[in-house]
């Protein structure tokens, strides 16, 4: 039963530190405010349907924007901020030794902290979606619950994934300063650099092939680049959210460049390869929850406290 006690302690600490209050207020204003702006001001009665905000995707050639993508960026940052100090702060204060003496095993501590901090993020997120839901009702917006409700569940999973990543960094770091720097660096990779890396690796593979008198076909390069993008939990979530409102083929193209779209669009109209399927992307998102937490436990189990 001790992991439950750790999880409850994490949740109570978040309430006392007012972190839960602040993140709840933020999500209520962000999601409720966006819904009020779109459905109460910008859109006419005939355009008031959930997909026009929570399924909003726009591509302007080299630049693309989506509301699910913006929500994922914000949620990723808040989730990492909630969890990156979960172990390092207690190691620096010495309270982790007291925590382990209660008795709680190190596995109890990792599981309890993951669940407790995930509950903090998900609770704040759900209040935000509830605020948006109230606005949808008041403005007479068509709800499209078959898409909207699964999107809420997906968003909660994304929050848990980033809590798991932050917990992993906290377990691997020797100090809170290290955990802070690692979190900032990793968030930069997820939010900014991942796309360039995904597009650069196929070009590098093609360059290496050319050195031995071969080449990588355009279609293969595009498939590798898009597949690598899907490994980013932000893009995984964005693509799965798009699939809730549009067809699978159209959803696979929301994170692509103009060139990738031109090459892959005819292929995606047919049968999707398994590594582009919705179930595969869902497993990628689940893996971002399980694997970082497992690595965090492995590191914490071997740490000299």
From TrEMBL:
Annotated keywords: Membrane, Transmembrane, Transmembrane helix
A Pfam family per the record: ABC2_membrane_2
Residue runs in coiled coils: none
Protein's UniProt keywords contain Membrane: yes
Q: Where are the transmembrane segments?
A: 20-42, 54-78, 114-140, 152-172, 179-197, 279-300
Does this UniProt record's set of keywords contain Glycosyltransferase? no
User: In terms of domain of life, where is this protein from?
Assistant: Archaea
The entry's cellular-component GO terms read:
plasma membrane
PANTHER family (alphabetical)? ABC TRANSPORTER PERMEASE (PTHR43471), ABC TRANSPORTER PERMEASE PROTEIN NOSY-RELATED (PTHR43471:SF1)
Q: What is this protein called?
A: ABC transporter permease
Q: What is the lineage of its organism?
A: Archaea, Methanobacteriati, Methanobacteriota, Stenosarchaea group, Halobacteria
